[in-house]
TrEMBL record:
The gene is ispE. The active site is at 10, 136. This is 4-diphosphocytidyl-2-C-methyl-D-erythritol kinase. Belongs to the GHMP kinase family. IspE subfamily. InterPro entries: GHMP_kinase_C_dom, GHMP_kinase_C_sf, GHMP_kinase_N_dom, IspE, Ribosomal_Su5_D2-typ_SF, Ribsml_uS5_D2-typ_fold_subgr. ATP binds at residues 94-104. Catalyzes the phosphorylation of the position 2 hydroxy group of 4-diphosphocytidyl-2C-methyl-D-erythritol.
Length: 299
């Protein structure tokens, strides 16, 4: 018997970063949006092991440090049983790209193992277990569009009308999320910029509720973007190219280095991807739509 779960990537439509807390985290306002780039995670009975395949999987751990492996152990501990599951990850979500690929795989492993072990684990319990694993893991279970508060794990679904079209410019190599947050703190200290308490953008929420792509593009924000650009200056050229070629809005996704561009429709997304490819500002390009559902069982 095996169980396969399909799980989406995310883009952060708004990422507001508050002051550094005593526990080392930041209070966030994080508007998540699930998009149609998917990993597939398959679990089968057997000793705990992780294998990974797909494009650009260099650097993905296959030992106990893999977040999907940690998810298996966490769920098994909750159920009081041995973590007996072999995990295979087929990756399409960029690795260390700011699109929560590792978190998505952890969410998928939780859901897949619950089904494999025939355990009746209610979604709220899975969400709590997911939050123990990482700030982005609960949203990968939920999907759609939602605002996350706290570390990003306290989720409230948002109204989102229609479908939005995206182009993602994938960069060579990744960016460490802790390093980007540390650079954000360093830049704020260097410029004596006090981090205020972040709040949801009314313009962003209104654009989502009405399905207005142009208004959404104008409302995209990411407080981590200056830090990502500081660590990877070449991303500035990528973002500038997207603006030049008519993107409705652009930003670094999460901690980067993937850059996200909002298009008016599918035809515009195809034209934008072709122009960015011609400009040579990305390792690869991917078109996607959102919102899409969270992790769900295929077989």
């Amino acid at each position: 018997m095996s169980v396969t779960v399909k799980v989406p990537a995310k883009v952060n439509l708004q990422l507001g970063v508050g002051p550094l807390r005593d526990d080392g985290y930041h209070d966030l306002v994080n508007v998540f949006h699930a998009v149609s780039l998917f990993d597939e995670v398959t679990v089968t009975p057997g000793p705990l092991a992780v294998t990974v395949a797909g494009a650009s999987v260099e650097g993905v751990p296959t030992g106990p440090d893999n977040l999907a492996a940690k998810a298996v152990v966490r769920l098994a501990g909750h159920l009081g049983r041995a973590p007996e599951a072999s995990v295979h990850i087929e990756k399409a979500i960029p690795v260390a790209g700011g699109m929560a690929g590792g978190s998505a795989d952890a969410a998928a492993a939780l859901l897949a193992c619950a089904r494999l072990w025939e355990a009746d684990v209610p979604l709220p319990v899975l969400m709590d277990l997911a939050a123990d694993l990482g700030s982005d893991v609960p949203f990968a279970l939920l999907g759609g569009t939602a605002v996350g508060l706290g570390r990003g794990e306290r989720l409230t679904p948002l109204s989102c009308e229609g479908e939005f079209h995206w182009v993602f410019a994938l960069a060579d190599g990744g960016l460490s999320t802790p390093a980007v947050f540390a650079e954000c703190d360093r830049l704020r200290a260097a410029f004596e910029a006090e981090a205020g308490w972040p709040h949801e953008s009314p313009d962003l929420l209104a654009a989502l509720a009405s399905g207005d792509a142009k208004a959404l593009g104008a409302a995209l924000t990411n407080d981590l973007q200056p830090a990502a650009l500081s660590l990877r200056p070449s991303l500035g050229r990528t973002l500038a190219a997207g603006r030049e070629f008519g993107a409705l809005g652009e930003l670094v996704s999460g901690s980067g280095p993937t850059c996200a561009f909002l298009a008016a429709d599918a035809e515009h997304a195809a034209e934008l991807a072709a122009a960015l490819a011609e400009a040579g500002v990305a390792r690869a390009l991917a078109a996607a739509t959102g919102p899409v559902p969270g992790a769900h069982v295929l077989s």
